Amino acid sequence: MSATTERRAGVTASPPARTSVRLPSTLRLGLARTQHEVRLFFRERDAVVFVFAYPVIMLAIFATVFGGQEDVAAPGVTFAQYFLPGMVATGVVLSSFQQLATTIAVERDEGGLKRLRGTPLPASAYFLGKVGQVLVTSLLQTALLLVVAAVVYDVPLPGDVARWVTFAWVWALGTAAGAVCGVAFSSVPRSGRSASAVVTPVVLVLQFVSGVFFAFDDLPSWMQSLASFFPLKWLAQGMRSVFLPDAAAAAEVGGSWQHGATAAVLVAYLVVGLVLGARTFRWTRRDAG
Amino acid sequence: MVTTSARADAAVVVRGLTKHYGDKRAVDGLDLDVARGECVAVLGPNGAGKTTTVEVLEGYRRRDGGEVAVLGQDPGTAGRDWRTHVGIVLQSADDAAEATVGELVRQFARYYPDPRDPAEVVAAVGLQDRERTRVRRLSGGQRRRLDVALGIVGRPELLFLDEPTTGFDPQARHEFWDLVHRLRDEGTTVLLTTHYLEEAERLADRVVVVAAGRVVGSGTPAALGGRAARSAVVRWVEDGAARELTTDAPTRVVAELAARWADRGLDEVPGLEVRRPTLEDVYLRMIGEAAGTTDGLPAATGATDAVRVGARVGVPA
């Protein structure tokens, strides 16, 4: 071993060709990547319709069809008000998990990741760019949802700071967990072409079992137990605690909002996703040896 | 063995490189030197180990054995600083469909400490009229020139081009060659892999032929294979039988033949042809020998060439 190292050192004896000029900082490159990624996101028609606009469209459809229902889960709660938290949670999962799992798989398959690997762009700047893109699009999406819900469907938004604090940590943890799990899941599709076919059903099934379309306590209990293993159920429950009156907590399966459990599950996904993502991430296709 | 002084000015030094995929030896003891400012073309059939070798040099693949130094560093462990001096044009990439040409070149320029002017790079690859065009609307040749633009915007000292003109029409290929010549005039070292013998002849100072994971020949395009490989073959028909003579002095052989037929009172030597092996003939023989064929030039190539020479002789001037 040491002999090999010495011989190698012999070959590499020549000095670097040029004294290097200062490399651009990771933070600056992360911002440059964010700007680039956000611009490309809004040019991708599929992403704009099925990631960005989807929860707003679903809110519009459901709130219009079931608009007549009153006193959902608690007295005075309209259907739109009950449906909004589920759509906020869905939007967070789509913008973080589905968006990253799909686009990174496609970038890997198309050779874009390999190309970036051949430049001095640090990996951390690439991921900063992804995080930045998710934050920007997810924030805009949530804001759009709240505005549409409030203006078009007269959903009352919370007035007290405590609820907005809850909203902030549930949203931030959900987005972060979704993003790291998305990076990890991007290694599952075998090609860019199959990426959305592999990723979309996972999210769709989660939406149904996690009770974003129906009241969660109407679901069969085995489905409720299944959903408890996944973050979307907890994300939706956390959002209900923000947008529904406290009386609605009684309608939850656990009889309360379970903030502690919500935080624990989301943090667990964040940690597991981070570890898995860091271990499985590849710059090149699987067949590239 | 390379001396230390030779190494100081080497862009690439490879000694005994090996790389296995399962039981298959993709690269099997390969040596390669590229001097600074030189353009070296690596030729070889599919599966010869060209791309594996280049990807080891680019830092994409780990090697199983051997010594590799690219710009004085081991590409397996080299960092960001090293990457600022290396430009890579991959064999295939179809990413960033929704970005425009100008956006992409400007974006990549930001990754480097001392980039070329993006507008100049776009013009250098002939895409100035496509600056605001989305990448998905580019033709295959334009797409490839964009790949080159992204590879050179960081002002690399060493540029890797992996089969850069595959799928180009002849005009696009000539424009691309002009571009590589300009880069070379600016002092860029180029390591090129290609299937096209003409491309190697036009661009490379030196050609390296790789077969079955090893170098089977190396030299300037004109001298590849050595003097013997370049000997002319004189063919004629005598007494109803085809005759053939391999010689370094074909003019003298033809003069002797002419004199012999003049003695018989004839002006023309029947079936006379003189042919010199092209780079392609030499190349095909090298990879044929590496694959275990020992009977010289493949029959098909010889036949094609004979037909060509025959046709030329047959048409009166």
Task: Tell me about this structure.
The complex is a heterodimer of chains A (289) and B (317). Chain A has 289 residues and is mostly helical. Chain A has one domain (25-283). Chain A is 71% helix and 0% strand. Chain A is built from eleven helices and no strands. Mean pLDDT of chain A is 87; it is low at 1-19. Chain B has 317 residues and is an alpha/beta fold. Chain B has two domains: 10-219, P-loop containing nucleotide triphosphate hydrolases (Rossmann fold), CATH 3.40.50.300; 232-276, no CATH class. Chain B is 36% helix and 25% strand. Chain B has helices spanning 4-8, 50-57, 80-83, 101-109, 118-124, 140-152, 170-185, 197-203, 226-229, 250-263, 279-290, 299-314, and strands at residues 10-21, 24-35, 39-43, 65-70, 86-89, 158-162, 189-194, 206-211, 214-219, 232-238, 241-247, 273-275. Chain B has a six-stranded mixed β-sheet, with helices on both faces. Chain B has a three-stranded antiparallel β-sheet with strand order 2-1-4. In chain B, helix 4 crosses helix 5 (118-124). The longest helix of chain B has 16 residues, at 170-185. The N and C termini of chain B lie far apart (53 Å). Residues 1-6 and 293-317 of chain B have low confidence and may be disordered. The chains are: A mainly alpha (289), B alpha/beta (317). The interface between A and B is large, with 39 and 48 residues.
